[in-house]
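Students often ask why inverse folding is considered easier than folding. One informal answer: many sequences map to the same fold, so there is more than one right answer. In these notes we will look at a single instance of the problem. The structure comes first.
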């Protein structure tokens, strides 16, 4: 895909590409994968919150070891699910599964989050990591997840802010068309 870059941006190296082109925004708003992502994200965050509580509780008290261990497994499965469906969403909206320029750094950081969660699973299921390593890995994965979630929330905020001028422009055009049509109706009568 070729993107338009202003002359000033070419010289400074900064891209002026909007988060979504009008066509991408239409695809984003019309695909079922947007709803899927919108539902999975808070579910995953809820799972994360419960798991974080269980892990910290175990580390502080030594209680509920199995609950803490398996909560990270459930969180990891939720992460894999949202990553797969997110890649499908990106393919539908942008035409590629991952690393589109609009979400490039979020996708890069998502890979770190997935690697850390996967290392936890590898350590757990192979038995090569003790509880200290497992839970340190889980906590590192959770810190990375929070940073990554914040990246996506920031992009969502950018998308909402960038849609406001577009909505205002459409409203202004519609208002102009309506006011221009009124004299024509009066002239016809």
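Output (designed amino acids):
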């Amino acid at each position: 895909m070729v993107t338009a870059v202003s002359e000033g941006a070419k010289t400074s190296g900064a891209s002026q590409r909007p988060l979504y082109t009008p066509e991408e925004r239409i695809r984003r708003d019309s695909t079922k994968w947007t709803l899927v992502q919108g539902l999975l994200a808070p579910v995953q965050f809820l799972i994360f919150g419960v798991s974080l509580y269980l892990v910290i509780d175990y580390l502080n008290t030594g209680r509920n070891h199995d609950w803490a261990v398996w909560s990270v497994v459930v969180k990891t499965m939720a992460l894999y699910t949202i990553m797969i469906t997110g890649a499908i969403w990106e393919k539908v909206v942008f035409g590629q599964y991952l690393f589109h320029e609009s979400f490039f750094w979020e996708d890069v950081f998502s890979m770190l989050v997935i690697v850390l969660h996967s290392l936890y699973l590898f350590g757990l299921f192979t038995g090569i990591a003790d509880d200290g390593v497992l839970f340190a890995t889980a906590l590192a994965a959770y810190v990375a997840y929070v940073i990554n979630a914040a990246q996506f929330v920031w992009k969502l905020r950018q998308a909402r802010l960038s849609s406001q001028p577009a909505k205002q422009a459409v409203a202004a055009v519609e208002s102009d068309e309506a006011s221009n049509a009124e004299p024509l109706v009066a002239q016809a009568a």
